[in-house]
Amino acid sequence: MDAPLIAPGKPASLNSSQAASRLGAPAAATLLIVAYATITSLLLPVNVDVSWLLTVGDRVLNGERLYVDIAEANPPFSTWLYLPFLVMERLTGLAAELWLSVGLAALAVASIWFSARILIQADESLKRYARLAPVAVFCVLFLLPLDFGQREQISVIALLPWLALFSVRDHRVDFHAGSAAERIVAGAGAAVFVMIKPPYSVLALAVPA
């Protein structure tokens, strides 16, 4: 029998190991940054705004009425935003601040991964920038440690997929970008952004429909 044909180039196993190596280093760095941000955020004093909204949320869970029993100037979503962490505190006995740190870190990683996925699907050449993922995680998660957990930080993290989708859309002749699921997730993130900061809804008027 004739010898089997061997495709020219590097063996598949070598290519796989190189790909794993390219992704492994950024992934490890991202995990280290997440661990550092989570632990450090627990050692620093909780931001006063975050502390207040956690207090308001705790009172809401105790049955008090927002804007009736509790004097609060922020829109209701600002309070609702922190309720899951307070619920987890009651279910597990672990502090809401811990759940906030863990949840925010997970949200940051998920948002950046999802945004990168949208961009890479539109342009495969962007894969070479995967090593910058840890930098992006650090910037959105812990660039301003004293403001960790603020509504503004959460809103920016939530908005990233929408910005990625809009960036891709802006470079397409037919303005098509992302799958239906990606557009739904990005839209939900943009909605969170607007509900946290309603005045920023005017941004929708600054971009083409």
- SSE class: mainly alpha
Total count of strands: 0
Low-confidence stretches: 3-7
Describe the sheet with the most strands: none
Classify the helix fraction into a percent range: 55-70%
Structure description:
The chain has eight helices and no strands. The protein has 209 residues and is mainly alpha-helical. The protein has one domain. The longest helix is centred in the first third of the chain and has 32 residues. The N terminus is likely disordered.
Quick summary:
The protein has 209 residues and is mainly α. The chain has eight helices and no strands. The longest helix has 32 residues, at 12-43.
